[in-house]
Amino acid sequence: MNEEQAFHAVRQSLKKRRFEHTERVVEEAAKLAQRFHVNVEKVRLAAILHDYAKYRPIEEMRRTIKEKGLRTDLLLYGDEILHAFVGAYYVQQELKVNDEDVLTAIKYHTTGRAKMTQVEKVVFLADYIEPGRTFEAVNEVRDWAEKDLDMACFLTLRNTIDFLVKKEIPIYPDTFNAYNDYCLNIKRRK
Ligand code: GDP
Ligand code: FE
Ligand code: FE
């Protein structure tokens, strides 16, 4: 699957606003990849496809998780995280993308996880700081993203957990594990 085919696939499956968000994530991710010496082609393909499943019916995604034996704990934590995990599965099945680095970047783009790959980090961060995100907390993350990929990912996780806690939304364990991973590593680095 080349970029043109990937863009074609998401143009079909996303609404206009979401497609424009995707274009900004691709630009942001490409910049980060260059800055931190991460494989730009993989990053761009994962960024193009990261929200592929965003508008799939929730019931369909829940059924896919059960029928295909994906992690069933996903069903307990609210519908927002499904499009990432099921999206990676659909991208593999429907678009025949088999590159593990691309697939895991899609899979963990919402929650993050402990020991993220470089491609995962870049897509995760780009989705959070793309220029269309206007909430106040993003500015500090943008500043760190100029120089320190791990610190920027850590702050993204901290802000996301903070946001979810304030809204009393359940937090998927991968998000906590990612937070702890960075917290411990950044502290050790100092
Ligand atoms: P988008 O698809 O570009 O809108 O962005 P994301 O895929 O990053 O996030 C979608 C939503 O998932 C956001 O509203 C987040 O607050 C929410 N989210 C992120 N992490 C978690 C989590 O651990 N648990 C739950 N329930 N929601 C989360
Ligand atoms: Fe998403
Ligand atoms: Fe997104």
Automatic annotation (TrEMBL):
<dbReference type="GO" id="GO:0008803">
    <property type="term" value="F:bis(5'-nucleosyl)-tetraphosphatase (symmetrical) activity"/>
</dbReference>
<keyword id="KW-0547">Nucleotide-binding</keyword>
<dbReference type="InterPro" id="IPR003607">
    <property type="entry name" value="HD/PDEase_dom"/>
</dbReference>
<keyword id="KW-0378">Hydrolase</keyword>
<feature type="domain" description="HD">
    <location>
        <begin position="18"/>
        <end position="132"/>
    </location>
</feature>
<dbReference type="Pfam" id="PF01966">
    <property type="entry name" value="HD"/>
</dbReference>
<keyword id="KW-0479">Metal-binding</keyword>
<keyword id="KW-0408">Iron</keyword>
<dbReference type="InterPro" id="IPR006674">
    <property type="entry name" value="HD_domain"/>
</dbReference>
<protein>
    <recommendedName>
        <fullName>bis(5'-nucleosyl)-tetraphosphatase (symmetrical)</fullName>
        <ecNumber>3.6.1.41</ecNumber>
    </recommendedName>
</protein>
<dbReference type="InterPro" id="IPR005249">
    <property type="entry name" value="YqeK"/>
</dbReference>
<dbReference type="InterPro" id="IPR051094">
    <property type="entry name" value="Diverse_Catalytic_Enzymes"/>
</dbReference>
